[in-house]
Design a protein that fits this description.
10 helices; about 20% strand; 15 strands; alpha/beta; three-stranded mixed β-sheet
Length: about 325
């Protein structure tokens, strides 16, 4: 049996969009996002649909259980990124989050939560979404990168990460918050923490150059390296190519690191070798989806819940 880890879920949720496009409401503070060509919406949607379909097939071939939901609506351009509106946690806990952009708030889906309750042991759902009325936002595992083993929540300050709400989440879910400022090569705040770092069981990827405070940068390096984890530093260019936006998963033959083909190509041979000393890299081709400013990690919501012995629903979700 392959060795498992709290950090690497063996089951995930993904959303297949039918009307994908870069979200105009998120463009102002998302420096990774690019504008869509005018008149090409139908082609973008078709390509994004196919990219998710192919990515799901690749993950399933590796033994990852993918619960795939369809999103036929045309008013949720970022629906392909479900990790921002909910997260799951060992012990049967689920969190639902407040979103910064108004048209992202309608991405929250009761059918996803009902599937989790039917197929997995869910003890409680803590819903923070009402705090949108108080302009408090915490966009899930985009705003936070969670170390489930060491119980640390890493969070870069941004409009999408309320420190007040982060403290509340950490109290409820028993994490230690580590907050820091991070900026891209142009000096702009990085909108989501999960585009600059990824925490795995034995390896971590992080753009330490994005953190200008030398003391805080060294604190993060030491904390990530605790218990022997290999900390791989990413350049600004590699961060811009989504090399930090990866997720460790449990496959049938062991743990793997899912990232985009663009991210994989941005890594040096030495960096790839250090990663592959611990786990397999699985590159996924999602160039269209990356136009929206997120990559593979953003498309995957890990399920850190215990499955029920006799699930009420089986197979692929609708």
């Amino acid at each position: 049996m392959p060795q498992t880890s709290l950090q690497a879920p063996s089951a995930v949720i993904m959303i297949r969009p039918h009307h994908f496009r870069p979200n105009t409401q998120t463009a102002r503070d998302n420096g990774f996002q690019v504008s869509a060509p005018k008149g090409g919406e139908a082609d973008l949607s078709k390509r994004a649909f196919e990219e998710v379909t192919t990515a799901v097939e690749a993950l399933r071939c590796e033994g990852v259980e993918v619960n795939l939901f369809e999103d036929p609506r045309d008013d949720r351009p970022d629906a392909v990124f479900p990790n921002n509106w909910f997260s799951t946690h060992p012990g049967g806990h689920v969190a639902v989050y407040p979103m910064y952009s108004q048209n992202r708030r309608i991405e929250r889906r009761q059918d996803v939560l009902e599937m989790l309750k039917a197929r997995y042991r869910v003890q409680d759902i803590i819903d923070y979404s009402g705090l949108e009325q108080d302009a408090l936002y915490l966009e899930g595992t985009g705003a936070m990168v969670l170390d489930h083993v060491e119980r640390v929540a890493y969070a870069a300050r941004s409009k999408r990460t309320s420190e007040v709400l982060l403290e509340r989440f950490c109290t409820h879910f028993n994490y230690e918050p580590m907050v820091f400022d991070a900026h891209d090569a142009q000096g702009l705040p990085i909108y989501h923490t999960n585009v600059l770092m990824c925490v795995g069981t034995d390896v971590a990827l992080i753009g330490l150059d994005t953190i200008l405070d030398a003391g805080r940068r060294e604190e993060l390096r030491k904390r990530l390296a605790h218990n022997g984890r290999d900390v791989i530093e990413l350049s600004h260019d590699q961060i811009a190519n989504f090399a930090g936006n990866a997720i460790e998963l449990q496959g049938k033959d062991g743990r793997l690191l899912a990232m985009s083909r663009r991210a994989f190509d941005a890594l040096s041979p030495e960096q790839r070798g250090r990663i592959e000393a611990h786990l397999k890299i699985l590159p996924l081709d999602i160039p269209t989806i990356e136009m929206a400013g997120g990559s593979v990690r953003c498309t995957i919501a890990g399920i850190h819940l215990s499955p029920r012995p006799n699930p009420e629903t089986e197979g692929e979700a609708a």
